[in-house]
């Protein structure tokens, strides 16, 4: 039965500061691969991955977005209709954690009302001395040379924030693969799959109601944006 | 998001801008001369008719079809100009121009003699001006590969690849020309497949006949040569020539190095961002796995981030520059990048990326126009095309296609302009039409293009047996479709479309910025979402009216500090003092001057921002992060500290505002400054009550403070027994400060008065108490920001001083309907003139608080029998009055009116006019004088005598009388109305703070007016 079953499509968006490893997390999940030097994402990249949860097949449609601040105004274009979001930060950079908080805030206000958000602290390999200690070189393309490689955000701090904001929370290493798959399976568990199957038909209508400030926002839509200004 | 208002400054390009862009000139300027001409390069046998333009340093020609022949010759490359005899067509003038490379151009001017003579004069003059540049040409040309190419032999039979040959040449000590990393790390693509040698030979021939580097003339063959792809070795130089960045490099020798040296070792947010991406720029290319390549990339990106700090660094620039550096030297890439960012694709990489967003909108609209059903399908399936197409434009296809093909698109893009990006994009849609029309979501569309771009090298018909057909790749098809089927897309189309959508894009970016700015607030204080929204509107409005220049802002913090900083501080828009003054004046009634101008036809209110130290003090005290600039969060916190508190908190707030070292004490100087601030805040209030209150305050403050220092114990006791509000030392014996026995000698800079004492003194006065209790708080109001400022982002806001409240009166309304905002000032000016000529023009200052009228009764009650009028404070106040700063002068002129109202409530004389004294107009001087006077008053005050109480009002009363007498000479009778009006004119023109009150009741009614209007 399961083989013939039509997969449930789940749109997932990755957000977070530049160079925290969003694309690497996706690459690990989709291709079980890691690249030292991954080109920055311009606009957004799109990948899909199926995974099985109990008797259902879920097809993740993953939107991996650009992290630089100035690309932020494009983000609504990518996170509209997203059922789930993965907000990534770098556990060795406190500014990336601040940025993650800000993304969470934005998602909770602007994205689909019941979006499931996972907070992911990446680059666990940089602080875990116990794990094969290869200090030979900076392990991630994105680390700045002068940056102190020690942990800047404690697990407890992030955990507390995640609980307070009702987020899933994980720490991962895209490099070693630690914790990556769990992020997606836990999200899959939380998604009300039955509802999606039932509501797929009406999805098109819902979509037009999403507000966005992006290129497609015509004058009619910007009215709606105005209403949402009172953040 | 960082600098919101940059968008506001963006204007549609003018005709001259477009012309300069077309010819790729370094700067836009009006052509000195423009005429019809026939143009030909000697030896080619081809001649074109078109337009000849002479600019300050360029001679440009464009054939009528805008394609066949285009040239832009820098005047410094012209060696010699000769007048040719025209036997065939007598009367017309022909010139022969010998260029640097020996190229001979023949230009026949198809105009009447006077026009061509004028042209020749201009040319002669301009050539002379460029003489100094000529000597640099030789060295500059030597750095161009084209010179070397023309000089060397290309051996057709030599089957060795070119890299080998080049290495030989390098050994020949000829590495002086600019070249990219490709020389060392190889160019992408197979040189044989790309037919490099054939291309080089063709170019060599072309260069011989049509000039090269700075003297290149574009003939029809040129287009074909570009479209088949530039040869790798020549590519960098050709990009530079075609984009025009070569002229910038010529004009700014050493600038690139200078910027690098100047900022050596410095870091910024941009450099941090660059650092993150260095290893991620074309990582598969050999040079970028090598420290030398990475270092070159770093230098170009950081140098540009310093040159264009507003832009800084945008992801995708790393990919572009990495691509450029394969073919170009660092200096070449630097100037090319500049050209792209500022002229060819403005706004693509800017902080708001408005250029990118705009072009996406344009692209979408072009799809709608050229492929309506596909567009409809996208709309119905909720597919956002820009999800796919935005990266094409932003990375000039480098990120989307295999490099060899992307570079060929860039060849065309630099040669023919931005339309190429659109044409290629449209062609990609057209070619994949059948697949796209079946796509149901963004992801599918994205995959279709990904697969397509990956297959560009494959033949269109892989099953064909004809080798010629097999040679037609997907890429050649793409180009053919782009330039044939979409030849309708011209430069003009793009310009037109951009113009159409610009305002909408700017508006949506601004809305987004607002949302983010508000969301990023850590603390909304006691305002709530609505209040914060309003604060943002005022913040933005102030920024539009008086933009904060980027240079005025403090340099960014060193990167170590930044790591721990709050996110919002990194990209926040901040304002400087000048913008802050405008912001505050929009919110607080006392922080602006409001003139109610009535010219008989209409009444309008004109606002201006006066000068005062208090703005700086507020700015400083609200600068919570100590960066000498205020962000939205600072303003929210700052306003929160004054808009919600009660009496005691406000007194403390005001005290702290003036306590510059925060030691809990004001010095004498600070105390004087504080009273000055009070005088400033009350400057618009009618009547003398506030002046009196401040004078009394000063006297009392000095008394108490002195006594505290003198006998701390004693005063404490006295304070306990005494009701502070009853202090009135006026009738005490007049003793000079110095004569007080044991009077403490406190320097003006020593701690002098503490908060407790200050509070007591403030509470001693009902007006001050009311001010701190409610008036101060209520003087902050969020009026609606004029919608025009928000809705029409492209209007010039600097003219909007008249903020458009209350243009009333019948004629005013009618005219308001007819005239646009732009004309309004002129209209107002005319109406004022007419008003003056019929004696109806009047200007009234609107009070900030409007309490005095309601206070009159209280004052009446307190008023004792008039007696004992002379006392030191009176003389002090009189001194003050006689030299009050001009901003205070209105109170003085109003004094008469207030008096009048008390004396004869019912019988007001409309003719009576009071006017400020001439001396008062000198703002600065009288300001100083007032301080002096205040100090004098303090020096002359009587000794502290806590028990002697007497109401002071009468004394002011007396002073008023005195003043009225003294001011009598300024009262102007109706006979002198004309003179008076002239004077008012002068005052107004000088933007002095003047008042003419034709009718006393106008002023008295003013507060009521205000309430109605607000």
UniProtKB/TrEMBL annotation, chain A:
<dbReference type="Pfam" id="PF00071">
    <property type="entry name" value="Ras"/>
</dbReference>
<feature type="compositionally biased region" description="Polar residues">
    <location>
        <begin position="143"/>
        <end position="152"/>
    </location>
</feature>
<dbReference type="GO" id="GO:0003924">
    <property type="term" value="F:GTPase activity"/>
</dbReference>
<feature type="region of interest" description="Disordered">
    <location>
        <begin position="128"/>
        <end position="153"/>
    </location>
</feature>
<dbReference type="GO" id="GO:0005525">
    <property type="term" value="F:GTP binding"/>
</dbReference>
<feature type="compositionally biased region" description="Acidic residues">
    <location>
        <begin position="130"/>
        <end position="139"/>
    </location>
</feature>
<feature type="compositionally biased region" description="Low complexity">
    <location>
        <begin position="207"/>
        <end position="221"/>
    </location>
</feature>
<feature type="region of interest" description="Disordered">
    <location>
        <begin position="202"/>
        <end position="231"/>
    </location>
</feature>
<dbReference type="InterPro" id="IPR027417">
    <property type="entry name" value="P-loop_NTPase"/>
</dbReference>
<dbReference type="InterPro" id="IPR005225">
    <property type="entry name" value="Small_GTP-bd"/>
</dbReference>
<protein>
    <submittedName>
        <fullName>Ras-domain-containing protein</fullName>
    </submittedName>
</protein>
<keyword id="KW-0547">Nucleotide-binding</keyword>
<dbReference type="InterPro" id="IPR001806">
    <property type="entry name" value="Small_GTPase"/>
</dbReference>
UniProtKB/TrEMBL annotation, chain B:
<feature type="region of interest" description="Disordered">
    <location>
        <begin position="945"/>
        <end position="978"/>
    </location>
</feature>
<dbReference type="InterPro" id="IPR018247">
    <property type="entry name" value="EF_Hand_1_Ca_BS"/>
</dbReference>
<feature type="compositionally biased region" description="Polar residues">
    <location>
        <begin position="914"/>
        <end position="925"/>
    </location>
</feature>
<protein>
    <submittedName>
        <fullName>TBC-domain-containing protein</fullName>
    </submittedName>
</protein>
<dbReference type="GO" id="GO:0005509">
    <property type="term" value="F:calcium ion binding"/>
</dbReference>
<dbReference type="Pfam" id="PF00566">
    <property type="entry name" value="RabGAP-TBC"/>
</dbReference>
<dbReference type="InterPro" id="IPR050302">
    <property type="entry name" value="Rab_GAP_TBC_domain"/>
</dbReference>
<feature type="domain" description="EF-hand">
    <location>
        <begin position="646"/>
        <end position="681"/>
    </location>
</feature>
<feature type="region of interest" description="Disordered">
    <location>
        <begin position="885"/>
        <end position="927"/>
    </location>
</feature>
<feature type="compositionally biased region" description="Basic and acidic residues">
    <location>
        <begin position="162"/>
        <end position="177"/>
    </location>
</feature>
<feature type="region of interest" description="Disordered">
    <location>
        <begin position="155"/>
        <end position="182"/>
    </location>
</feature>
<feature type="compositionally biased region" description="Acidic residues">
    <location>
        <begin position="949"/>
        <end position="967"/>
    </location>
</feature>
<dbReference type="InterPro" id="IPR035969">
    <property type="entry name" value="Rab-GAP_TBC_sf"/>
</dbReference>
<dbReference type="InterPro" id="IPR002048">
    <property type="entry name" value="EF_hand_dom"/>
</dbReference>
<dbReference type="InterPro" id="IPR011992">
    <property type="entry name" value="EF-hand-dom_pair"/>
</dbReference>
<feature type="region of interest" description="Disordered">
    <location>
        <begin position="716"/>
        <end position="738"/>
    </location>
</feature>
<dbReference type="GO" id="GO:0031267">
    <property type="term" value="F:small GTPase binding"/>
</dbReference>
<feature type="compositionally biased region" description="Basic and acidic residues">
    <location>
        <begin position="717"/>
        <end position="726"/>
    </location>
</feature>
<keyword id="KW-0106">Calcium</keyword>
<dbReference type="InterPro" id="IPR000195">
    <property type="entry name" value="Rab-GAP-TBC_dom"/>
</dbReference>
<dbReference type="GO" id="GO:0005096">
    <property type="term" value="F:GTPase activator activity"/>
</dbReference>
<feature type="domain" description="Rab-GAP TBC">
    <location>
        <begin position="229"/>
        <end position="417"/>
    </location>
</feature>
């Amino acid at each position: 039965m399961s083989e013939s079953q039509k997969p449930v499509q789940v749109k997932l968006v990755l957000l977070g500061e530049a160079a925290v490893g969003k694309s690497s997390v996706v690459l690990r999940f989709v291709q079980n691969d890691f690249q030292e030097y991954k080109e920055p994402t311009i606009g957004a990249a799109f990948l899909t991955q199926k995974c099985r949860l109990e008797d259902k097949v879920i097809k993740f449609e993953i939107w991996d977005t650009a992290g630089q601040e100035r690309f932020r105004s494009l983000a609504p274009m990518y996170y509209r209709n997203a059922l789930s979001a993965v907000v990534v930060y770098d556990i060795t950079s406190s500014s990336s954690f601040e940025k993650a908080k800000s993304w969470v805030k934005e998602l909770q206000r602007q994205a689909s009302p019941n979006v499931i958000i996972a907070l992911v602290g990446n680059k666990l390999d940089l602080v875990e001395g116990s794990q094969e200690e290869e200090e030979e070189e900076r392990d991630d393309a994105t680390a700045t040379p002068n940056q102190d490689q020690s942990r800047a955000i404690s697990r407890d701090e992030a955990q507390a924030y995640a609980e307070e904001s009702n987020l899933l929370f994980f720490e991962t290493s895209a490099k070693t693969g630690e914790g990556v798959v769990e992020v997606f399976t836990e999200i899959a568990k939380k998604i009300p799959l039955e509802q999606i199957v039932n509501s797929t038909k009406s999805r098109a209508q819902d979509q037009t109601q999403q507000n966005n400030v992006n290129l497609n926002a015509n004058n009619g839509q910007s009215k709606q944006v105005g209403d949402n200004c009172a953040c | 998001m960082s600098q919101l208002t940059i968008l506001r400054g963006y204007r549609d390009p003018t005709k001259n801008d477009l012309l300069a862009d077309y010819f790729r000139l370094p700067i836009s300027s009006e052509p000195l001369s423009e005429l019809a001409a026939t143009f030909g390069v000697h030896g080619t046998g081809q001649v074109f008719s078109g337009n000849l333009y002479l600019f300050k340093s360029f001679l440009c020609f464009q054939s009528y079809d805008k394609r066949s022949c285009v040239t832009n010759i820098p005047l410094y490359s012209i060696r010699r100009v000769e007048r040719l005899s025209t036997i065939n067509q007598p009367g017309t003038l022909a010139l022969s121009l010998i260029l640097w490379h020996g190229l001979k151009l023949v230009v026949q001017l198809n105009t009447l003699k006077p026009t061509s003579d004028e042209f020749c004069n201009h040319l002669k003059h301009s050539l002379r001006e460029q003489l100094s540049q000529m000597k640099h040409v030789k060295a500059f040309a030597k750095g161009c590969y084209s010179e070397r190419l023309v000089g060397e032999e290309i051996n057709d039979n030599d089957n060795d690849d070119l890299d080998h040959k080049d290495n030989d040449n390098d050994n020949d000590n000829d590495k002086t020309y600019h070249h990219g990393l490709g020389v060392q790390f190889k160019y992408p693509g197979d040189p044989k497949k790309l037919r490099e040698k054939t291309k080089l030979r063709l170019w060599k021939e072309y260069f011989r006949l049509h000039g090269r580097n700075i003297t290149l003339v574009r003939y029809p063959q040129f287009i074909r040569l570009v479209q088949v792809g530039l040869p790798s070795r020549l590519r960098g130089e050709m990009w530079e020539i075609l984009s025009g960045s070569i002229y910038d490099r010529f004009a700014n020798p050493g600038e690139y190095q200078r910027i690098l040296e100047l900022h050596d070792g410095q870091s910024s947010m941009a450099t941090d961002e660059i650092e993150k991406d260095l290893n991620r720029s074309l990582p598969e290319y050999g040079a970028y796995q090598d420290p030398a390549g990475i270092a070159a990339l770093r230098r170009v990106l950081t140098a540009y981030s310093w040159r264009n700090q507003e832009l800084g660094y945008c992801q995708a620039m790393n990919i572009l520059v990495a691509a450029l550096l394969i073919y170009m030297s660092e200096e070449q890439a630097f100037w090319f990048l500049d050209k792209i960012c500022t002229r060819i694709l403005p706004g693509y990489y800017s902080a708001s990326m408005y250029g990118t967003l705009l072009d996406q909108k344009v692209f979408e609209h072009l799809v709608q126009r050229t492929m309506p059903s596909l567009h409809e399908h996208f709309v119905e399936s909720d597919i956002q095309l820009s999800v796919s197409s935005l990266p094409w434009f932003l990375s000039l296809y480098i990120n989307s296609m295999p490099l060899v093909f992307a570079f060929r698109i860039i060849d065309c893009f630099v040669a023919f302009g931005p339309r190429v990006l659109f044409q290629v994009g449209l062609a990609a849609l057209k070619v994949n039409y059948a697949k796209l029309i079946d796509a149901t979501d963004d992801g599918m569309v994205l995959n279709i293009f990904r697969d397509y771009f990956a297959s560009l090298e494959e033949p269109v018909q892989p099953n064909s047996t004809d080798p010629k057909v097999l040679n037609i790749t997907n890429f050649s098809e793409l180009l053919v479709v782009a330039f044939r089927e979409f030849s309708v897309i011209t430069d003009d189309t793009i310009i037109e479309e951009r113009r159409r959508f610009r305002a909408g894009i700017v508006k949506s970016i601004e809305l987004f910025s607002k949302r983010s700015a508000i969301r990023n607030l850590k603390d909304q204080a006691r305002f709530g979402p609505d209040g914060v929204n309003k604060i943002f509107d005022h913040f933005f409005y102030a920024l539009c009216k008086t933009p904060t220049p980027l240079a005025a802002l403090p340099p960014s913090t060193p990167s170590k500090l930044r790591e721990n900083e709050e996110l919002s501080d990194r990209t926040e828009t901040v304002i400087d003092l000048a913008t802050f003054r405008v912001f505050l004046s929009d919110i607080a009634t006392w922080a602006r001057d409001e003139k109610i101008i009535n010219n008989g036809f209409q009444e309008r209110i004109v606002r201006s921002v006066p000068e005062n130290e208090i703005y700086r003090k507020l700015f400083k005290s609200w600068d919570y992060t100590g960066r000498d600039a205020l962000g939205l969060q600072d303003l929210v916190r700052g306003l929160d500290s004054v808009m919600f508190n009660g009496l005691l908190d406000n007194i403390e707030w005001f005290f702290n505002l003036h306590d510059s070292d925060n030691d809990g004490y004001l010095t004498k100087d600070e105390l004087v400054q504080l009273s000055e601030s009070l005088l400033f805040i009350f400057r618009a209030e009618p009547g003398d009550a506030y002046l009196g209150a401040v004078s009394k305050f000063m006297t009392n403050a000095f008394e108490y403070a002195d006594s505290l220092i003198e006998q701390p114990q004693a005063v404490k006791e006295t304070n306990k027994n005494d009701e502070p509000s009853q202090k009135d030392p006026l009738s005490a014996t007049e003793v000079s400060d110095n004569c007080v026995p044991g009077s403490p000698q406190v320097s003006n800079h020593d701690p002098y008065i503490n908060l407790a004492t200050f509070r007591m003194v403030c509470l001693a006065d009902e007006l001050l108490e009311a001010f701190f209790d409610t008036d101060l708080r209520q003087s902050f109001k969020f009026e609606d920001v004029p919608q025009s400022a928000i809705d029409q982002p492209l209007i010039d806001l600097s003219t909007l001083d008249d903020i458009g409240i209350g243009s009333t009166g019948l004629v005013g309304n009618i005219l308001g309907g007819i005239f646009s905002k732009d004309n309004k000032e002129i209209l107002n000016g005319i109406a004022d003139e007419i008003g003056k000529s019929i004696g109806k023009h009047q200007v009234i200052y609107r009070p900030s608080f409007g309490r005095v009228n309601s206070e009159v009764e209280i004052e009446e009650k307190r008023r004792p029998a008039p007696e004992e009028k002379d006392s030191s404070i009176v003389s002090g106040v009189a001194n003050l009055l006689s030299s009050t700063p001009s901003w205070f002068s209105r109170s003085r002129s109003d004094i008469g009116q207030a008096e009048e109202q008390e004396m004869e409530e019912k019988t007001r004389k409309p003719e009576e006019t009071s006017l400020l004294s001439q001396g008062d107009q000198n703002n600065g001087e009288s300001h100083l004088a007032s301080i002096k006077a205040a100090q004098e008053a303090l020096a002359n005050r009587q000794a502290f005598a806590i028990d002697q109480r007497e109401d002071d009002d009468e004394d002011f009363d007396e002073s008023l009388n005195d003043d009225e007498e003294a001011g009598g000479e300024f009262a102007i009778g109706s006979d002198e109305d004309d003179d008076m009006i002239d004077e008012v004119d002068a005052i107004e023109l000088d933007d002095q703070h003047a008042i003419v009150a034709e009718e006393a009741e106008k002023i008295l009614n003013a507060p009521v007016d205000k309430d109605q209007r607000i």
